[in-house]
Recover the amino acids of this structure.
């Protein structure tokens, strides 16, 4: 057995220059979502909390500030980001570290899978509410433009998704400078409001928030759903660890983003307390001098487009993880930049999200109506993350039950409060992300269940490998190399049996190739390939890839020459199975599941394209498989 090392095709520059991402780029990608939350959070909270009065505004400000401190600063930035998977973050990365650890596997997989589905729905809602909120700011200086806000928002959203195919490498260079200006501007606007009414800073005392909840009963509880909108981008901080690293994200958060957010929320509250906010107006835009309101709307629109771009790019990355982890069928993933591995494009995801986002914008009509739908998905994702963090504390850190419950239990309690408040708005719009997430969970579980059943049925039709090889001494051999891709190395691949059945010969050299996805983002070069000689000119090649890597079989085979297993692609044939799924009696899939699985299998990217195998070197052997 030989372990083969090869140069890493995507060097991790982040590890060499850990603070380089702070040179503006990280600001746009990491903080786009949470950075634009002042556009709609306080406005929505005031509407749900009993009106724009001074006592209500002070209580809500206290709740917002402490939500940012507890949920984002303490939970995510200090604790959750410590649970990385070789530098990668996000709920799927956390799930991949836990799903092979004993009896909790099924629960962990379902939690991660559900959290991923909820994040997809968040990816559809975020662009809609962000762009609508920004363009609605035109209503204050230009009231007559109100009927055109929705069409303009739809046009911006459609254009955003249409440009995804071009990649975000060029646009990404503008993210940081624009968002740096954005944070400085909202901080200065907030500071101006605070200087006019400095007494609002007393609301930083958590007792103001607790007093508001105690005195307003059900209304106070419901307003937590709006307050939560201030922290919806916290999950993105964790998911974007792989691009920038934990330290730069923490420095950016504590050094710029958190202070300017608090200043802006306090400034908006000061405007409400001072009575300078017109009825039904957004206190965010009321902070700005009238002459500068239209430029502020322009800056807000650009900032929300950046926030939307960030969440869209995040869903592309999450899709690649899901495909590699076997939660979705193979999809065509286009690398849009030779420099940035995270710069990818997934066409089916892009267009489905565009349809969902535009439909949400048209269906709800305004950011006010869409706010009820926004918090449900993210709050549930954060709750699932807290549960997984509890499991990680026990299994990865080796903590005892008491300290794990003490810390993770606090996070769960806070998340449950937000989830409960958001679920009260299910009939007002919360049903949308729940419906979308349920459909996605059904699709992913059906694909996973059907794929496992298909592989199990195929393996029933084969025989043990060791005995088979021993019986091939007298078999007629033909020149060349045959590569059979297989999921197991202890049994004979079905295409090999079919080839013998029909052609009665073996190739001079037979290679059984197993491509395994490890529960890590990237596999170390020294551990990429293992080659084992099985005897009688049979070889087993195991190729290991991480869930953030794209397999390249020709490159892999070219590197095997270092271990005296050279391949000439012009003299090599790849034998692949082409299965047609039929209904078994009885079946492990119901009618709906089987229909979805068959559709997904037909729609999946060809294995030749996914593994980058030359089409003119492939032989496909068909078979009907009943499951």
């Amino acid at each position: 057995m030989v372990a083969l090392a090869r140069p890493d095709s995507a060097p991790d520059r982040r590890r060499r220059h850990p603070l380089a991402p702070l040179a503006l780029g990280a600001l746009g990608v990491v903080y786009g979502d949470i950075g634009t939350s002042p556009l709609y959070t306080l406005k929505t909270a005031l509407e749900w909390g009993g009106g724009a009065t001074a006592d209500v505004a002070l209580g809500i400000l206290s709740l917002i500030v402490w939500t940012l401190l507890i949920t984002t600063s303490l939970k995510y930035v200090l604790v959750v980001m410590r649970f990385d998977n070789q530098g990668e973050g996000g709920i799927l990365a956390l799930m991949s570290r836990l799903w092979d650890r004993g009896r909790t596997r099924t629960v962990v997989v379902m939690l991660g899978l559900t959290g991923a589905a909820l994040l997809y729905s968040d990816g559809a809602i975020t662009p809609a509410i962000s762009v609508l909120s920004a363009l609605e700011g035109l209503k204050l200086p230009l009231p007559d433009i109100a009927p055109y806000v929705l069409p303009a928002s739809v046009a911006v959203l459609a254009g955003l998704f249409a440009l995804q195919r071009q990649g975000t490498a060029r646009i990404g260079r503008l993210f940081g400078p624009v968002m740096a200006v954005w944070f400085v501007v909202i901080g200065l606007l907030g500071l101006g409001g605070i200087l006019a009414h400095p007494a609002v800073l007393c609301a930083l005392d958590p007792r103001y928030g607790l007093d508001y909840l105690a005195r307003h009963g059900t209304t106070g509880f419901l307003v937590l759903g709006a307050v939560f909108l201030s922290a919806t981008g916290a999950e993105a901080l964790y998911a974007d660890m792989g691009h920038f690293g934990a330290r730069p994200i923490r420095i950016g958060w504590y050094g710029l983003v958190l202070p300017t957010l608090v200043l802006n929320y306090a400034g908006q509250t000061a405007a409400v307390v001072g009575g300078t906010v017109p009825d039904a107006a957004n206190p965010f835009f009321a902070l700005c001098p009238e002459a500068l309101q239209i430029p502020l709307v322009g800056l807000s629109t650009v900032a929300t487009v950046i926030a939307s771009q960030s969440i869209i790019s995040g869903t592309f990355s999450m899709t690649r993880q899901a495909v590699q982890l076997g939660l979705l069928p193979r999809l065509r993933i286009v690398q849009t930049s030779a420099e940035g591995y995270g710069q990818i494009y997934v066409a089916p995801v892009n267009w489905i999200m565009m349809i969902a986002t535009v439909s949400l914008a048209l269906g709800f009509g305004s950011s006010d109506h869409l706010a009820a739908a926004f918090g449900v998905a993210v709050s549930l994702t954060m709750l699932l993350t807290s549960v997984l963090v509890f499991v990680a504390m026990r299994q990865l850190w080796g903590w005892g039950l008491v300290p794990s419950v003490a810390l993770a239990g606090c996070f769960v309690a806070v998340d449950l409060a937000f989830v409960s408040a958001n679920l009260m708005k299910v009939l007002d719009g919360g049903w949308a992300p729940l419906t979308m997430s349920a459909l996605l969970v059904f699709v992913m579980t059906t694909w996973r269940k059907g794929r496992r059943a298909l592989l199990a049925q195929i393996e029933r039709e084969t025989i043990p490998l060791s005995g088979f090889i021993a019986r091939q001494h007298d078999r007629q051999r033909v020149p060349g190399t045959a590569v059979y891709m297989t999921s197991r190395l202890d049994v004979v691949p079905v295409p090999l049996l079919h080839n013998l059945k029909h052609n009665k010969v073996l190739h001079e050299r037979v290679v059984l190739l197993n491509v395994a996805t490890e529960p890590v983002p990237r596999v170390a070069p020294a551990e990429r390939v293992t080659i084992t000689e099985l005897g009688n000119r049979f070889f087993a090649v195991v190729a290991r890839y991480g869930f953030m890597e794209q397999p390249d079989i020709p490159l892999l085979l070219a590197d095997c020459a270092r271990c005296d297993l050279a391949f000439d692609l012009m003299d090599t044939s790849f034998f692949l199975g082409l299965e047609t799924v039929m209904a078994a009696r009885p079946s492990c899939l119901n009618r709906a599941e089987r229909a979805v699985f068959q559709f997904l299998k037909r729609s999946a990217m060809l294995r030749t394209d996914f593994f980058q195998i030359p089409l003119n070197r492939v032989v496909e052997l068909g078979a009907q498989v009943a499951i």
